[in-house]
Amino acid sequence: MKNKFLKQLFLSCTVTCALTAPLSAELLWEQQAEKLPEWVDNQVVYEVNVRQYSQDSSFKSIERDLNRISDLGINTLWFMPITPIGEKNRKGELGSYYSVKDYMGVNPEFGTPEDFKSLVKQAHMRGMKVIIDWVGNHSACDNPLTIEHPEYYVKNDEGNFIPPIGTDWTDVIQFDFSKPGLLEYQTQAMTYWIQEFGVDGFRCDFALGVPTEFWNELSSNLRKVKPDLFMLAEADVANHQLKAFNASYGWQLLHAFAAIAQGEHDANYLDVVLSRQSLTYPKDSNFLLMTSNHDMNSWEGTVYERLGGGAKVFAVLAMTMKGIPLVYNGQEAGLDKRLEFFIKDPIQWNKTSPMEKFYKTLIHLKTKNPSLEATASFNRVPTTDDASIYAYTRGKAEKGQILVIANLKAHDMEFEIGTDVIKGDWTDVFTGKKIHLSGSEELKLNMWNYLVLERK
Asked: Is the pTM of this model over 0.90?
């Protein structure tokens, strides 16, 4: 998605509806979610905006930077759409990545197919996985399919192609999913990227716009080609994870972080979100957790605009709560500007930003400690001020258990925490300091501060 309609659509649909849904809403908690591929359990996803990543917007520049990204601890790269961009009705100077002119082509602005193959190969050699964006709901207005298969598209009463209903996405036109040939085509096109380039999965854009039944069949077809394929839905639709997708966007937590940071809710609001998810989604569902992404950065504001002084503490939560963390390129360099979407606006890389060490510490913890795997247990720990302090454990004591204590208020907090679960010796992952907890502790955390402790 690529414009300000995102806020209207998703804030109303995924946050308001999800958190105030009537009791008659479908509850899927007794059904089993599609199994997460084993390799995904300890992944941290790094979103790559190729156009804005470097001055030359090239695959080669990203390949040259792979050692730095790998050293950061990242083990999955997600590339925003790398396909050629439509020219008809193009938005802005360069257009939107999500206006796909050729589903099996490579955007020449970024390089050649061989360049991308080399990038994927080099990433795999470093133990990284690669997923790419898939835009299945709509195509560019000048995609050859409009001539070769015009029946694949929705048309108005005058027989003209139309953009997705309810949007101002005038640079794209809506597919008609009642046409059986469309499923065959998308299966063929996605299989091409798996077989020819070796991609390990797809982040499916605007998955809400595509019927779940279509996704179910498409995913089933693709898993016959690659059984451990990772399918990620950019949507908050509970039945997506019954068959089609391995994970959904954690929109609810993303917006809850901002609501708490801006004083609209207190820390207990996180439990409201988690409880709602546990009832409405199938058992063992998975979510992509983040404090930013390309949409949020460009249209809603930087993490510092939306989260203020809480930018780091909410990053701690996103990296250590139950889920699959996402880092948007530049966050590790303290990205503090909204990147333009339709024109060239490269990231200003700050090689000395303290955020790099901060993220490196968290990412290495996430990827190396089994207690932070996506499927590891999560349990909130009570304090005397749960409205301000959010504390929880991940995993079991014998497997490097993690304890997080976070102050989600813009002022210093004194409180007590007490439970047998926290008894024992811990190490502060940021300072290396050894800490012994008796089980009942009086603590003080400065505003927006946090403790991340690990059992060795």
From this structure: yes
